[in-house]
Amino acid sequence: MLAKNLIGYQRICQLITTGRRRSKKGAYELRKDDLSTKMIGVIVLWIPGSAPCEAEAQWVADTFPSQGWIAVELHYESNDSLKLQNLFKLAKQFGLPLLASSDVHMHARGRRALQDTITAIKHKCTLAEAGFRLFQNGERHLRTLEALANTYPRHLLDESIRVASLCTFQLDELKYEYPHEVVPPGKTPSAWLRELTYQGVEWRWPEGASPKAIAQIETELSLIEELKYESYFLTVHDIVRFARSQNILCQGRGSAANSAVCFALGITELDPSRMSMLFERFISKERNEPPDIDVDFEHERREEVIQYIFNRYGRERAALTCVASTYHFAGAIRDVAKALGLPPDQVDALAKCCGAWSDRMPPPERLQEAGFDPGNKLIQMVLILTDQLVGFPRHLSQHPGGFVISEHPLSTLVPIENAAMADRTVIQWDKDDIDALGLMKVDVLALGMLSAVRRCLDLLRTHHRRDLTLATIPSEDPETYRMISRAETLGVFQIESRAQMAMLPRLKPKTFYDLVIEVAIVRPGPIVGDMVHPYLRRRNGEEKVTYPGDELRDVFERTLGVPLFQEQVMRLAIVAAGYSPGEADQLRRSMAAWKRHGGLEPHQIRLRQGMLERGYSEEFAERIFEQIKGFGSYGFPESHAASFALLTYASCWLKCHEPAAYACALINSWPMGFYSPDQVLQDARRHNIEIRPVDVTKSDWDCTLEYDGGAVPAIRLGFRMIRGFAENVGRRIEVVRAERAFSHIADLCMRADLDRRAQDLLADANALSGLAGHRHSARWEVAGVQESLPLFGEVIIAEEAVELPSPTIVENMKADYALTGTTLGAHPMSLLRAELIAIRAKSSRDFADLRHGQHIKVIGIVTGRQRPSTAAGVTFVTLEDEYGMVNVIVWRDLAERQRSALMHSRLLQVKGRYEDKAGVRHLIAGHLQDVSEMLDGLDVRSRDFH
């Protein structure tokens, strides 16, 4: 179907929506009666099969009078002449005109092998099994006019051109309107936004807003009214209002933090009048597109917000945007290898040669290491086709939270389909598409740290220790900053990675703005732009702070003359090169896109000329431009860094002053962050927090706090720690235990209605120790419990207890890790320490006594691997022993040579050079060895590449 005009486009969108919504994701279900209504503005092309059917031709002629054509496709196949002859007869018999069509599937004939492979992937079969689903030849490619003229009768080509000329629809004809529900009857959007904003002013500034803040609000309201964005702000305000009414923590971030109106409405938490914010980073006239507001919600409760939006506006008017997921190397090589008929074990081995994070062809030596012959023709074909497939669209997935909401049905703008997740619908456009067409998008995002902070505050409130909110957490606390400067930030927001931890002792944050810089500085933009070291040297007094001119002092003073933020680059362009604020925002957008699309060259000329005209040196202009190009590698906006820094500080304060509650909340909010529950618990134990085991007589589903009169509570592990244990079973145990305590295991099993699996998991996890003693006794008692029969009602049948020997330390440790992923007994490395001392392996405790540059050997449990984009191929490995953690840096060449040891070791031996620079201690790896056999089957797991 082709859209002649706007009405035709809308009919086609609605038809696609009908077929998609009727089916599960990835499928259509259209019926003939869906086409019985007049398809006004639509041209219908009927593409007959290999044997044209008169009944189908009759249906097309009857259903689409004067709208239907027969599309003739000729691809030098054996039956082309007969097909053309039959189609001429059908056209004459049913009064249907003919036109030429090509059914193009590839741009060039040489891509036939890839096209066949994609067909096999689509049908989930091998090429050998694909049969007639493959095309007869490679002619379904873009052909030249000369080739088409030699293939089709001239009048068919002329008809194709004529039909194409009938299709005049342009996407810019689409008219989008904001939803009306957000404005009360009798109010205009402008008046209602102003009223809500000034209500917020009274709330945000109870002692009165400053003239600067009021002036900023008035400037913003005027521009918002001029650009007719009032309903957008009101819609976001409504969503945030709902979340707060349900006690769901939320916080706006990104460029919206530049807006005083967003702050007054409660959308963001950062007062822009306190910071050097630039509103044009958020909205400008020259940008000619709606603003983009990102709001983070608790990750465990975001679904409530999503369903509120669907319920308020209906699925006809609200949907998530899509993401066009493309092939990366590991996924591509897996699909291609399957299509070419490799057995599953070889498919897995080949995919592992790439690694989940690699988009590079595996080198021959890695293939040989995995048991493949690099010269094998089939393997070579797999690699060639994989290289061609990388970057191709694979499927449509849903955006993490980008909502489009409209006054009229969205299906008049874009097709809608069902998402893979239940109760969600997705439009077939991504964020770039809707930006280009000016559609409103609200990002309803999930943030695990908000869940953790809310849980922590709830714990403090429940135990009557403190009644805090995010807003009332004490600010600028010296003790918190001292903890941060020691890099004791495991589990906090944004500054918990190894790279951030390495930066903290060098930067030594002492104020909130220092945290803003810390959040932003360990990013590709500042690093590639060579801004990090100059800033640190100036901060530490090793280099003089200079400014190229007094007028730029205001722009760079807070960052010691070094541009770190996108807003500073924009202000620089305004002050030093004569840009308008809107033009400066266009520069920012070009910065973000130049590596993919280019487009910075005009700005280079403009910036250079503008700076030279205003007296700046050519050297300064060139240096600034190189730094601007660095921002193309994800330079951070100051507003974004400041929004994140609020949560960074809050999480650090809670970890510093309420470490038990914070660790407990982190585990209850997992999965999130860089670290596993085991690492969080080991960190808590190193800070003298008592951890108590899972126990059916005391544990809830979540981990809880237990106070025994001391200053710091203990953490009681919850049933959630037991791998494979169902939440509903854990909650049921809580409920029946509240009625009365369990008298013995049989009593527990009957009252909590535990099936055999739940009983075995509790016994194996040592969660029955409060009723049966050690693991062996618990397993014996569970094995003797018989399910109560209806005949006996409340009668409980249990065998007599038998005295059994206690498990050994190693048996307990293995069971702990297998069932809960952690142990509260001896650390595994402590059992190996004597052996490690004998081979002169150092522990993390020894690092304080080592000299810089000393060559040492370390053995530790691998708890994490990270490979950030800032690190130019470097892998950071975290090893753990009974005393703490060791940070290992593995350069790219070593990682390639010893990939198996790097990627697959559970216990890793590292020989290398110890470095201690400004209190930042790590080991530069020179040789890696997998020594996992020393763990004797212990089930320890790392958390990699998060």
Automatic annotation (TrEMBL):
E.C. numbers: 2.7.7.7
Task: Give the reaction(s) catalysed.
Answer: DNA(n) + a 2'-deoxyribonucleoside 5'-triphosphate = DNA(n+1) + diphosphate
Q: Could you tell me which residue ranges the Bacterial DNA polymerase III alpha subunit NTPase domain spans? A: 192-446
Q: Name one GO molecular function term.
A: DNA-directed DNA polymerase activity
GO CC terms of this entry: cytoplasm
Q: What is its main location?
A: cytoplasm
Residue stretches making up the DNA polymerase III alpha subunit finger domain:
449-615
List the CDD domains hit by this protein, alphabetically. Answer: DnaE_OBF
Question: What broad class of enzyme is this?
Answer: transferase
Subcellular location(s) per record: Cytoplasm
Which keywords are on file for this protein?
Cytoplasm, DNA damage, DNA repair, DNA replication, DNA-directed DNA polymerase, Nucleotidyltransferase, Transferase
Q: What NCBIfam families does the annotation carry?
A: polc (TIGR00594), PRK05672.1 (NF004225)
Q: What does this protein do?
A: DNA polymerase involved in damage-induced mutagenesis and translesion synthesis (TLS). It is not the major replicative DNA polymerase.
**What protein family is recorded?**
Belongs to the DNA polymerase type-C family. DnaE2 subfamily.
The name on file for this protein is: Error-prone DNA polymerase
Taxonomic source organism: Pseudomonas matsuisoli
